[in-house]
Amino acid sequence: MKVRRIASPISEEDARSLRAGDLVSLSGEVLTARDEAHLRILEMLKAGRELPFRLEGEAIYHCGPIMRYDEKWKVVAAGPTTSARLDRLAPEVVRRCRPRLLIGKGGMSSETLEAMREVGCAYLAFPGGAAVLAAEALPEVLDVHWEDLGMPEAVWHLRAKDLGPLVVAMDSHGRSLFKEVEDSVKERSLLL
Amino acid sequence: MYPPSLIEETVVRLLRDSECRLPPDVHAALRQALANEKQEMPRSQLLAILSNVDRAAERSVPMCQDTGLPIFFVRGRCDHRILESIRKGVARATEEVPLRPNTVDPVSRENFGSNLGLQMPPVHIEPADQDHLDIAVLPKGAGSENWSALRMLNPSEGMEGVRRVVIDCVVRAGSRPCPPTVVGVGIGGTADMACHLAKKALLRRLGSRSDDAALAALESQLRSQINSLGLGPMGLGGSTTCLGVLMEKAHCHTASLPVAVSLNCWAARRAFAQVHPDGRVRFSQEGFD
User: Fold this and answer.
1) Which of A158, B35, B78, B248 might form a disulfide with B201, Cβ 3.0–4.6 angstroms?
2) What is the ipTM score, two decimals?
3) Is residue A113 scored above 90 in pLDDT?
4) Domain ranges of chain A
5) Predicted confidence (pLDDT) per residue in B189-220, tens digit
6) Across the strands, what pairs with B127?
7) Largest Cα–Cα distance in chain B?
């Protein structure tokens, strides 16, 4: 399968051109955000405050990395976390902040998929646990926000270079590979 | 008794070994899975996983950023001081390996940064009359731990009920615990004991069989049934959904049939040490016979 190289920030048109089943590698800017960061993003926006970073057109990475400070911050290990944990908060974050890429593992709910369809956002699956591969493709730390949330929950602003293999597992046209596999698994399990 | 500094040193080494190197049996099972998969999607996931494992071992860095909560199992003659030595070892390993600081207050979500906290790390001590001290560590990530299951079955549901609980747990967890998983099952005991047994089962070598003939048969039946589901590596489809099913049992109340399931991600990390009174320490990631 041919691997397509993409860069973030990415336009709506380019994000919508990604189709479920495509293999891509990503270069450019990536911002990590997990449970606590999602909560704070919504809290601030609801209070009418401005976020200290920009998410429109960007890639949100569901990841709580291991970082090491040695004169400057370095990524030690940075595989994806379970994206489904963020399903409670992600639809609103996607609609309000308009990121064009979500990166994680395991896929997300049909509610999140619907928000992605509206906004023009694709979900890229990185192999869970492949933290050293990911760290090698995240050679630069541009900034860190909300360090008070702790190392895994802070927002790390990183630069990616050929981050992959990434599978377009949910696209902005309503298709989810995870949902398709899950439906067939459920059906087979009833026969066992 | 054992010098506290020796225990602390051993704990640091156990954590470094378990986090940076996959046990040989798990590594072999993943290579076998790659050989079995024909489709490009599952192969791409397994190739990335195996290449990641090699890089982590070469560079001695954790293979997964979720270095988990380190669960300790201690067996032999020891006293209360061992808890302090283990805590010191965990705090040091958090700095030195390094491990991600994962331990937080469940209410305030405050993170002290050391992986220490109230009752953390968990340490299970089994007194035994033997000349050496066994220390095992099972670092367990939340991705798999969050899909743990406990069911209190009616005794009349029997082993067929147990089989159903395990299948349902794997189906419900789907892509989220990072398959291919190792499936630990605890049968019997009390509710809390069943959960403990399911965890303890994950210390066993892949391919080992339960001492109970009926459970050994159920282990292999469940393994092939789970792999027939088609969930595949990382839930993107394929013929490897689990690397093995390991069951442990304890006797239970005549009116109960507790069943607990503990899933482990493909990064099924573990390490064992045998500490001898003369200061010698043996290390292994597959246990000692």
Assistant:
1) B248
2) 0.94
3) yes
4) 3-191
5) 999 999 999 999 999 999 999 999 999 999 99
6) B76
7) 55
Show which of residues 1-40 on chain B sit within 8 Å of chain A, judged by CB atoms.
40
Residue found by looking up tokens 């994680």 in the block: A104
- Tell me if the domain spanning A3-191 has CATH number 3.20.130.10: yes
Q: Which of A38, A62, A145, A157 is flagged as catalytic?
A: A38
Q: Does the active-site annotation cover A145?
A: no
pLDDT digits (tens, 9 = 90+) for B120-171: 999 999 999 999 999 999 999 999 999 999 999 999 999 999 999 999 999 9
Q: Where are the domains of chain B?
A: 4-21+63-141+268-284, 143-264
DSSP B112: -
Residue of chain A whose alpha carbon sits nearest to that of B54: A132
Burial tier of B253 (Cβ tally within 10 Å: 0-12, 13-18, 19+): exposed
Q: What is the pLDDT of residues B230-274, one digit of tens each?
A: 999 999 999 999 999 999 999 999 999 999 999 999 999 999 999
pLDDT exceeds 80 at position B1: no
Nearest Cβ partner for B176 among A106, A134, A186: A106
Q: Report residue A142's pLDDT band, with 50, 70 and 90 as the boundaries.
A: very high
3-state secondary structure of A7: strand
Strand residue runs (E) in A9-130: 23-32, 59-61, 66-70, 72-77, 101-104, 122-125
For residues A123 and A174, what is the distance between their CA atoms, to the nearest angstrom?
11
Distance (Å) from the alpha carbon of B184 to chain A's nearest alpha carbon: 19
A78 touches chain B (CB under 8 A): yes
Which among B49, B52, B62 has the least Cβ separation from residue A66? B62
- Which CA distances in Å does A38 have to A33, A77, A83, A90, A154? 6, 21, 12, 7, 10
Chain B residues in contact with A178 by the CB 8 A cut-off are 174-175, 235-236
Q: Would you say B10 and B274 are in contact if contact means Cβ atoms under 8 Å apart?
A: no
C-beta separation of A89 from A174 below 8 A: no
Could you give the CA distance from residue B200 to residue B186 in angstroms, rounded to a whole number? 8
The answer to whether the beta carbons of residues B107 and B46 sit under 8 Å apart is: no
Q: Would you call B55 and A189 a contact, using CB atoms and an 8 Å cutoff?
A: no
Considering only CB atoms, which chain A residues are within 8 Å of B99?
66
pTM value is 0.96
> Which of A185, A187, A191 should we substitute to test contact with B (largest number of B Cβ atoms within 10 Å)?
A185
Distance from CA of B230 to the nearest CA of A (A): 6
Query: Phi/psi at B188 (nearest 5 deg)?
Result: 90, -160
